[in-house]
Design a protein that fits this description.
This protein has about 300 residues and is mostly beta strands. About 15% of the residues lie in helices and about 50% in strands. It contains two helices and 14 strands; from the N terminus they run αββββββββββββββα. The strands form two sheets. The protein has a twelve-stranded antiparallel beta barrel with strand order 1-2-3-4-5-6-7-10-11-12-13-14. A two-stranded antiparallel ribbon has the order 8-9.
Amino acid sequence: MHTSTKHEIKSRSRKKVLNVTLKLIYISWAPLAIGIASLSTPSFGGDNLDIETINKTNFVKPAEMIKITVTTPNSSNRIEANHFQPVNKTKKSLTFFDNTIFIKARPLNEAGESNSELQSWGNTLRLGHRSLINEGKSYIGFNAGYDNTFKDSYYYQQLGIGFEFIHPGITVLATGNYPIGKSSYKSPGQEVESTFNLQASVPLWDSNFSITTRIYYIVENQGGSAPGGLGELTYSFNSKCSLTYTVSNDRLSGTGYVLQLKYLFNPPNKNEIPSGMPYGTALPFSQALGNTGSRIIRLSGSVPAYGN
């Protein structure tokens, strides 16, 4: 097959992936936006929120976060270090920068196949904007950024987007990513997967517990596409530390299990939160975005459970 023909086929495949991803985003986000609009009418004033104090207090400040993710022997344990940096605060909104560096260990069932215990490492960047609604009881947010991964001397890249709706009674997140640059190599036989994720979390009868459900869709140039599902149970010891157990499954990657420990070094001080804002809203408002299935680049053939 001529080289030009190969390039044309690859170009058509990439366009097909992009079209499918955009359609999924449109189909899924449109009803989500309508539902959020009907759930609460945006209001930036009101007697219940001293909103003037948001850009005058230190409840939103730079913060660091560490995550340790333990997986099954056929997947990779992972350590993440994140820095959250507020860029601009107003009476009603926050613009922030979020940077995560991660390393992934080689799966235990591949022990002895390489001299290195390190399988891959990378960086993920996000610029986001959050706006308070419903008299400061909730907020919506949008973010976009760039992610990369170095694995066995190969370099992978992608662009990502995300949406947040946070309320004390429910958290709704939507994310998506699209590969850029050289997304696959013949030698390792892996490629960057395009994914779309829609996730909802609610607290349980005990406020320390919460459950999360996520539906996602994977698209590969070579392997086709498949829907998937994920469930999480999280126990929060306090505002700094939480433990999450995750189970997920899809046709392309199979079933994955994850245990993740998260530690936030600089959570907001309850005494500095504006009057009328629930702590369940202030805490996520002033910390970094999660992975939500798309920030850390996912290669074909990998186990799907990545944790948040």
